[in-house]
Write a structure and sequence with these properties.
Layout: E1 3-8, H1 15-27, E2 30-36, H2 47-57, E3 63-68, H3 72-79, E4 83-87, H4 91-107, E5 112-116, H5 127-135
Parallel strand pairs: 1-2, 2-3, 4-5
């Protein structure tokens, strides 16, 4: 297993995401962080801004950031990747992630989904928590990398 993909909206990328990326980068020769356009989720930040923030935050040599606006399995085919990384913070994440894993496998039978847990200190962090704090002008410096703090203003 030389390559894996970590897809998400990353709206914005958090220390929880970075924790999962670091763990994945230790397991695979290359990790592709795929930032989804995801109009359905109505992101706070544009796709370009989210890609920019991800690139600024990730300082790992074997990690590459790309945007995408397609089915994940189509991107996996294009990138010749059969392993999808997903993060699990709590049991509540599991049902959704399991359903997505099965859906992806129904579309591409050789795809495998690997679930990684962030460290306990990052387990409560989510992009939606960061967005809510930002909306009310709160301090998110403990939730995101310092490289993107200016981008969040």
């Amino acid at each position: 297993m030389s390559k894996a993909i970590y897809p998400g909206t990353f709206d914005p990328i958090t220390k929880g995401h970075l924790d999962i990326i670091k763990r994945a980068s230790n397991l695979f020769e290359e990790v592709v962080v795929a930032v989804a356009k995801s109009k359905e989720k109505n992101p706070m930040f544009s796709l370009e801004k989210r890609v920019h923030m991800a690139k600024k935050s990730i300082k790992i040599e074997n990690v590459r950031v790309i945007p995408f606006d397609s089915l994940l399995v189509d991107l996996c085919k294009k990138e010749s990747i059969n392993v999808v990384i997903r993060g699990l913070r709590a049991v509540s994440d599991f049902e959704y992630e399991l359903q997505m894993g099965y859906a992806n496998q129904s579309l591409k039978s050789d795809i495998e989904t690997i679930y990684l847990m962030p460290s306990l200190s990052n387990a409560f962090i989510s992009s939606s928590v960061v967005r809510t704090i930002l909306k009310f002008g709160g301090d998110v410096s403990h939730l995101v990398s310092e490289e993107i703090l200016e981008d969040l203003k």
